[in-house]
Amino acid sequence: LHLVALNLPFSGDMRADFQCFQQAQLAGLTSTYRAFLSSHLQDLATVVRKSDRYHLPIVNLKGETLFDNWESIFNGNGGQFNIHIPIYSFDGRNVMTDPSWPQKVIWHGSTANGIRLVSNYCEAWHTADLGAMGQASPLETGKLLDQKVFSCSHQFIVLCIENSFVS
Question: Residues in domain Collagenase NC10/endostatin (predicted)?
Answer without folding.
Answer: 1-166
